[in-house]
Design goal:
The structure is a single chain. By secondary structure, the chain is α/β, with parallel strands linked by helices. It has three domains: 196 residues, no CATH class; 151 residues, 2-Layer Sandwich (Alpha-Beta Plaits); 251 residues, TIM Barrel (Alpha-Beta Barrel), CATH 3.20.20.450. The chain is 58% helix and 15% strand. The strands form three sheets. The protein has an eight-stranded mixed β-barrel with strand order 8-9-11-12-13-14-15-16. A hairpin with a 2-residue loop joins strand 2 and strand 3. It is elongated.
């Protein structure tokens, strides 16, 4: 503890931040301490042997060694401090050797010390220099001996004692230096291990450490036939918190989250930070499933309590996945994948909840993987088809005002796969742009074929769903222009639908794209309005022409006053800012009548017409719609 205090006092803060420089500086300070102790002992020894003049040389040496420490402290020049210290030891040794018999001096062998210390502290280059200097010094004394140069040899009363103490002392000193070096190396290795296996921010075990913890838990469970629980915590929308408040406040929040997790669990050794806002916990041994459930519910409750951040309160939620590992009943190599599936399911349900891994999730994952494998071939295998759902004038429900192109996938191996399943997967595997371009081209071609055949009137607007990923592609506008030129469709004859969530997630860049579309004469409608957090006042800054009310509000507007009031408010406020309103998901005459009474502009739903394949659409359009 005292040595650590010396290190903290003499080693400047900036050197302590550099692990390599700090190691060298610490070796320097430790060597100075050992040198002080040894020098004091030999000063007393020389006084006892009747050579008091040696004390002066030793004191001067100690002063220089002390000076090297203050050079390190106040100038941070570690290289200079090392050279001063080695010079002091060398000079003292040369003086003593000269006065103790030169080549026959019992301390001549101490000349190996400066080179050893220089290598130990300053590295190989410094060691070579001082080894060269000490070799030249030894040759100098050898030359004096050859030429019989008379030396002023000090009278030593007990020469045998000096020889004994000198040889044994040199050995002990070298052992002490080697011990300090090895102890320091061991300390450095432990620190490196901490850096390698500990998270710097939270001081929790990191991902590599977690992998080892999990391997140990599996081994113990298999050996003892015990079960353990693996819990995966993911903080909902943490990236948005970082974007709003900055990384510094995000880090503070993470530290508080860790504190709450520890408080809920107690056993901090089972917690690891495996991602930016992700933590995994091993509960071993497992008491029972109810105990795990109670722990998780406690975690969710603690994490939901308000956080003080940036002079305000912040509420966050977490999604948690769990899996119970039971020997001989589960493949150990998939346990991490199982808990990830459980977490994904919890997040799919909206977050702020937990989910146990079940066999049903495994079946669902297998199906998802088969979709991922088959979807890239859907276009080349001609498995895609467009259905069109008519959109009607709310005041004249038989009058068609537009039609929405909806993608369908008829897989040869999987059968009909719903869009709500394969569209998110297409986004995940990077296929959404190819699908989106196919829909854009195919929809415009079918639309123009109907126009040219006289089946469809030109005032009917084609609505095409588009992904923000597709809009951000560099080649999007080039592709769009090619489709317009090749199909002959006018920009006033079609519009794009973009989900509210997409607009929120990429606000600035997307606004620029929407402005460019508007300048081309192409309108944009916000789909699923009300599912996100966009305010109607914010819509005034967006270059959009309309919005679609989320079906959730229509489902409840006849049974709950709140939903009815929300629908009415959306329609009234949208009209005030010159936006048209489409109500999707109309499934009854009562819903239609209520929407008409609220002056909704357009309606769409199964009550009026389901999505139709091309052949059925032609028959539908051939009927009178007035």
């Amino acid at each position: 503890m005292a040595i650590e205090s010396f290190n903290s006092y003499f080693i400047p803060h900036q050197i302590q931040q550099d692990e390599i420089a700090f190691t060298a500086a610490r070796n320097h300070v430790n060597t100075c301490i050992i040198s002080f102790i040894v020098a004091t002992f030999y000063a007393q020894l020389y006084y006892f042997l009747g050579f008091p003049e040696a004390i002066l040389a030793i004191v001067i040496c100690e002063v220089l060694i002390l000076a090297s420490l203050f050079i390190l402290k106040y100038s941070s020049r570690l290289d200079v401090a090392i050279q001063v210290m080695v010079f002091a030891i060398t000079a003292a040794l040369v003086w003593l050797i000269y006065h103790l018999g030169g080549i026959k001096s019992p301390i001549l062998y101490w000349l190996i010390l400066p080179g050893f210390i220089a290598t130990f502290i300053g590295g190989a280059r410094s060691g070579v220099i001082w080894c060269g200097i000490t070799i030249l010094t030894a040759l100098f004394f050898y030359g004096l001996y050859i030429f019989s140069y008379p030396l002023d040899i000090a009278p030593i009363t007990k020469d045998w004692l000096l020889k004994l103490v000198s040889f044994s002392g040199l050995g002990m000193l070298l052992v002490a230096l080697v011990y300090v070096y090895e102890a320091d190396k061991s300390s450095s290795i432990n620190k490196l291990k901490q850096l390698a296996y500990r998270d710097g921010l939270t001081k929790l075990p990191n991902r590599p450490a977690y992998d080892q913890m999990l391997e140990n838990a599996i081994y113990a469970a298999n050996a003892e036939l015990n079960s353990f629980a693996l819990i995966f915590i993911d903080i909902d929308n943490f990236r948005r918190i970082n974007d709003l408040f900055g990384e510094m406040y995000g880090n503070i929040l993470l530290q508080e989250i860790v504190r709450r997790i520890k408080a809920a669990l107690g056993n901090v050794d089972t917690i690891a930070r495996v991602g930016g806002d992700q933590f995994k916990i091993i509960i071993d041994p497992l008491l029972n499933n109810k105990a795990v459930k109670d722990i998780v519910e406690t975690l969710i409750a603690r994490l939901k309590q308000p956080y003080s951040i940036n002079n305000g309160e912040l509420n966050i939620t977490a999604s948690i996945g769990m899996v119970i590992y039971t020997p001989r009943k589960m493949q150990e190599k998939y346990i991490d994948r199982y808990v990830e599936l459980a977490l994904l399911k919890a997040k799919e349900t909206g977050g702020d909840t937990y989910q146990f891994y079940t066999a049903a999730l495994a079946t669902e994952e297998a199906s998802r993987m088969e979709i991922e494998r088959s979807l890239p071939n859907a276009i080349s295998n001609n498995e895609l088809e467009l259905h069109f759902q008519p959109i009607f004038d709310a005041k004249s429900p038989k009058k068609i005002a537009g039609m929405e192109a909806l993608l369908r996938w008829h897989s040869k191996t999987l059968g009909d796969v719903p869009p709500k399943i394969f569209i998110p997967i297409a986004e995940k595997i990077g296929l959404i742009t190819d699908l989106g371009n196919w829909v854009l081209r195919e929809a415009c071609e079918k639309y123009m074929q109907l126009i040219k055949a006289g089946t469809l009137q030109e005032h009917i607007i084609l609505t095409i769903n588009i992904s923000p990923v597709q809009l951000h592609q560099n080649a999007f506008f080039e592709t769009l222009t090619q489709v317009i030129n090749q199909t002959g469709i006018k920009t006033q004859q079609f519009e794009f639908e973009l989900t509210e969530t997409a607009i929120i997630s990429s606000e600035t860049d997307l606004v620029d794209v929407l402005l460019k579309l508007r300048n081309m004469g192409i309108c944009t409608v916000i789909d699923d309005f009300g599912s996100g957090n966009t305010s109607l006042s914010y819509l005034t800054s967006l270059p959009v022409t309309g919005l679609k009310i989320d079906k959730v509000f229509l489902d409840k507007m006849l049974t709950t006053t709140v939903s009815a009031d929300v629908v009415e408010a959306i329609i009234n406020l949208a009209h005030k800012i010159k936006l048209k309103v489409v109500a999707e998901g109309v499934e009854s005459s009562k819903q239609l009548d209520f929407l008409v009474s609220l002056n909704c502009d357009l309606v769409q739903g199964f009550y009026l017409s389901r999505p139709l394949p091309e052949a059925e659409l032609k028959k539908f359009l051939s009927r009178p719609h007035t």
